[in-house]
């Protein structure tokens, strides 16, 4: 299958951009040649999770999907991707991810949390809402794999996972349905680093109560562990071929750069929005944290109970309970009210704590206790 670079097909200026024409002048076949066709396959040249998710948004918002379907193939460097209505504190080990410098992304589709790295292939099937068919899309994946290796036991399930050997998940699905258009996207675990996948998908926090969508953990396996002769390029080519075959299209795989603002006007702003704290954390459904911990300073120790209500990622209510001989009640009360309005974010909290301690001239002993208390609170963020 020929791989083409869409950038080369574009004339370079916004006014001549073929994708814009796709949106605004989609009835002009002479201009379109390839993109005027009913089926189109693209593959991202980027491995940046935010850029790649932004391209999904861009296509969903800008391309007329009534007359054409698109298969979008993409891979990301290591990242965790949560569903639109999920709670990241509940779903992943944020502390470990921060230590590893691993990004967390919130996608616009629902569903659970998955781990991505270059050993994981993502596919997005864009269609009109009428043509939206997850079973058929997943049959493209399973047929592509069976065409490559007829001995593989891969089957899709009722919940739109794909299982290997009837028990190991190799693919998870999510979808976004708009008024007239839709996309279904799914993963394919080929050779992801499972020594990272498991620990990053384990929350390190306790005492979270929320109605956010929980993930459904499953035993996972990499496809290449089953057949080490496979590789990602071969799989992506097979997926593209099977997509054309299943839907009667004849699209080559067009390589696209989601960082190319000329090609996708406004995409950088979309990627920026996906990177913001307000989107990644602030979109978490309202939740509360009720936790207790022991604090030790020198020879003194105490049990602290901590209650927080968090809305849009911001602390709405805060109360803490501890022996008054350990920390005077007026100090803990003042600190509690100081935290209201603060982002549930370790960096922000550390800065606020420093400001609080500067402003409230506590004695050395109380200051040390406050630091200890705050360290414990921050460790839960
Ligand atoms: N990459 C990947 N592929 C398949 N299964 C995974 C993966 N990472 C983790 N898991 C397993 O799935 C569950 C979560 O399953 P759950 O069913 O809760 O969620 C999903 O499957 C969501 C799939 C989203 C697909 C999108 C496509 C493009 S952007 S992300 C997790 O706890 C692990 O056990």
TrEMBL record:
Pfam families: LplA-B_cat. PROSITE patterns: BPL_LPL_CATALYTIC (PS51733). Lipoyl amidotransferase that catalyzes the transfer of lipoyl moieties from lipoyl-protein H of the glycine cleavage system (lipoyl-GCSH) to E2 subunits of the pyruvate dehydrogenase complex (PDCE2). Unable to catalyze the transfer of octanoyl from octanoyl-GCSH to PDCE2. In vitro, it is also able to catalyze the transfer of the lipoyl group from lipoyl-AMP to the specific lysine residue of lipoyl domains of lipoate-dependent enzymes but this reaction may not be physiologically relevant. This is Lipoyl amidotransferase LIPT1, mitochondrial. It comes from Coilia grayii (Gray's grenadier anchovy). Pathway: Protein modification; protein lipoylation via exogenous pathway; protein N(6)-(lipoyl)lysine from lipoate: step 2/2. It is an enzyme of class 2 (transferase). InterPro entries: aa-tRNA-synth_II/BPL/LPL, BPL_LPL_catalytic, LipoylTrfase_LipoateP_Ligase. SUPFAM superfamilies: Class II aaRS and biotin synthetases, SufE/NifU. It is found in: Mitochondrion. The keyword Manganese does not apply. The lineage of its organism: Eukaryota, Metazoa, Chordata, Craniata, Vertebrata.
């Amino acid at each position: 299958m020929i791989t083409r670079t869409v950038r080369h097909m574009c004339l370079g200026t916004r006014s001549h951009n073929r994708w814009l024409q796709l949106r605004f002048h989609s009835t002009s076949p002479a201009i379109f040649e390839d993109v005027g066709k009913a089926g189109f396959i693209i593959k991202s040249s980027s491995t940046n999770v935010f850029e790649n998710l932004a391209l999904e948004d861009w296509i969903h918002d800008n391309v007329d999907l009534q007359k054409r379907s698109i298969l979008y193939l993409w891979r990301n460097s290591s990242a965790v991707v949560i569903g639109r209505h999920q709670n990241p504190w509940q779903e992943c080990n944020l502390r470990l991810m921060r230590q590893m410098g691993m990004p967390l992304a919130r996608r616009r589709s629902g569903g659970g949390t998955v781990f991505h790295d270059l050993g994981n292939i993502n596919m997005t099937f864009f269609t009109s809402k009428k043509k939206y068919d997850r079973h058929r899309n997943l049959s493209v994946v399973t047929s592509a794999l069976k065409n490559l290796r007829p001995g593989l036991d891969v089957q899709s399930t009722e919940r739109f996972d794909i299982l290997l050997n009837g028990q190991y998940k190799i693919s998870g699905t999510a979808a976004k349905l708009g008024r007239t258009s839709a996309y279904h996207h799914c993963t394919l675990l080929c050779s992801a680093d499972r020594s990272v996948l498991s620990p990053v998908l384990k929350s390190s926090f306790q005492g979270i109560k929320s109605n956010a969508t929980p993930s459904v953990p499953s035993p996972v396996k990499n496809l290449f562990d089953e057949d080490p002769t496979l590789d990602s390029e071969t799989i992506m080519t097979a997926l593209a071929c099977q997509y054309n075959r299943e839907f009667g299209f004849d699209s080559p795989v067009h390589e696209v750069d989601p960082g190319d603002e000329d090609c996708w006007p406004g995409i950088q702003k979309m990627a920026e929005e996906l990177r913001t704290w307000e989107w990644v954390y602030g979109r978490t459904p309202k939740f509360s944290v009720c936790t207790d911990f022991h604090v030790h300073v020198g020879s003194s120790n105490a049990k602290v109970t901590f209650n927080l209500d968090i809305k849009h990622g911001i602390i709405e209510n805060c109360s803490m309970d501890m022996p008054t001989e350990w920390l005077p009640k007026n100090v803990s009360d003042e600190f509690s009210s100081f935290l209201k309005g603060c982002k549930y974010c370790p960096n922000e909290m550390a800065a606020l704590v420093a400001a609080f301690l500067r402003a409230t001239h506590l004695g050395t002993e109380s200051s040390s206790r406050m630091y200890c208390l705050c360290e414990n609170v921050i460790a839960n963020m």
